[in-house]
Amino acid sequence: MKRIANIVRLIIMIVIALISVAPILWMVAGSFRPYQELFKYTSLNVHLLIPVEWTGRNFHNVIFNARNPFLRYIWNTMFVASVVTALVLIINAMAAFAFAKLKFRFKPFVFALFMSAMIIPGEVTLVPNYLLMHDLGWLNSYKALIIPSMLSVFGIFMLRQFFAEVPNEMMEAARIDGASLPRTFVAIVLPAAVPALITLGLMTFLGNWDSYLWPLIVINDQKMQMIQVGISTFSSNEGTDWSKVLAANTLSTVPILLLFLFLQRYYIQGITMSGIKG
Where do the domains of the chain lie, and which CATH numbers do they carry? Predict the structure, then answer.
């Protein structure tokens, strides 16, 4: 009976996995189809996911498009996402360490104030942030894309849960051995939270890689634009070139898939541990 239950569970998991992966497979297959074939096969058959006529021209048209410099979009997004991720890990780790291990006046109140920011929708802050970027003269610059994203309230909360689990005795022993507070933080506290740091890094990188609304608002220069806004330029009042859209989306997905494949073990571990700590 138990064996039958396991087989049924396995079949259900395979079906769910296939349903989840099917849109991605269709996107990749569509990126290799000529435009006239793209919506020709809509019924459930082998050609729904396997092109009849294979072509790489869609990728050529996307990469070597003079009007929409797609490689420039990728570089902009890679640079912004990497810098934001590095700054988020540094700043949020220090803030989380302060909330978890340091003693200062009004700490519960300040922490509660930080956590209250999680209930504020991001759309509410768009206009104030835009006006601030305008007053600082940062529109159409990397600063407008990077600096407002340096702080993650959720990241502080998650890292605080990990740092709180580090025994105070270890920190006291380090201080007795002559280690300063920054050295204790780097040598003892941070290594204990590597899964959480990698998880937060992946979430931050992915969030900035997929960012659309904020870059659309603060960046008007085509050469400074991010990849998701760049993909949207293949749609216009004249219509949508779906072959280019699918090819561009396929190209934009590759870095994220590679990053997740290399770090998925730490990501899963971080998510699992964050659910049982605290």
Answer: 1-54 (no CATH), 58-275 (1.10.3720.10)
